[in-house]
Amino acid sequence: YIFFLEILAAKLRKSETKVTLWLAAVGTAVGLVYLDIPWGELFENGNEFITSLSSWPGPDQLLNAIGLTLQTVSMAWAATGLAAVVAFVLAPIATINFGAKTNIRSGRGALFHKWGYWALYGFSRGLLLFLRAIPELTLALIFVFWVGPGEFAGLLAIALHTVGVLGRLYCDTYEDIASEPVSALEKLGTKPFGLWLYGIWPQAAGRILAYTLYRFEVNIRVSATMGFVGAGG
Question: Does this model's pTM top 0.85?
């Protein structure tokens, strides 16, 4: 399913905006009809839900909640930082037009030959796809049995899934940059790392940092659910 969405997303990015909007509208409508959601129960059970929230926690419970909140934020921060480093390394290799812009595929002064580039591209892209396809809670259950319950299991689960998500977002960022500055540097004989440092990174830095901070926000919420499987948070 994730592999299918990967291909669909690549096609939609090259299509007109209205195609994506129509697809989103039709998918939403079909989903609402297929699920047959009982909207009335949302209002019928509202009073009972509000009444259940009327009891306030005591001082001990509040102190415990504060400690767990700090644990949650720490898990999210550490997991996002580790994942960002790994995704930052994998994303250029997993970006199909990055190789063209840095001559990796052409073999002219490249770091790798054509076959080597495609092997690295396929491996890194597949790895990001695999990590993104496994939910954090599933990974948390695996690591709870592997390293035992606690924050470490939750941190590893969130970090691995985040590598896949951030890697995909970083790849999209690299693929959307303007090619003119890179081509100009390439004509001047700039090496691959110089092309990335002076032609690609200045265009991509803002979006990459924004995506990373947004994923940290998401991971805070994810960390709060780790406690359901004994993985901290």
Answer: no
